[in-house]
Design brief:
Blueprint lengths: L2 H18 L7 E2 H7 L6 H9 L10 E2 L10 H10 L4 E2 L2 E2 L3
Parallel strand pairs: 1-2
Antiparallel strand pairs: 3-4
Helix pairs in contact: 2-3
């Protein structure tokens, strides 16, 4: 407990704020979310938060550094992003 739990709570709160601020059509990488949340280098932690959140955050708006979709959820993520006007090519988000 102690400091590490508090750090985890702070990280999750900061990540939640970034994720909930994303608008339809916005796409960020896990690393960008971590950086904007004030926790540079914690991309894996962002992924862990998203994977255990039960879908309360707009997970489909987050991709890996190469623009790839979430393994095992590519079809749903591609559909949700396309519905928001995001262009996909070969299973990757085309970043502007």
């Amino acid at each position: 407990h102690g400091r590490s739990d508090q750090m985890g709570d702070e990280l999750e709160s900061a990540v939640a704020e970034v994720l909930l601020g994303l608008e339809p059509g916005d796409v960020m990488t896990y690393g960008e979310v971590a950086l904007e949340a004030g926790f540079p280098g914690r991309a894996r932690a962002v992924g862990r938060i998203l994977s255990t959140s039960g879908g309360i955050y707009p997970w489909w708006r987050v991709v890996n550094a190469a623009g790839r979709l979430v393994p095992g959820h590519e079809e749903e993520q591609a559909r949700r992003l396309a519905d928001e006007g995001v262009e996909l090519r070969n299973g990757r988000v085309r970043r502007r």
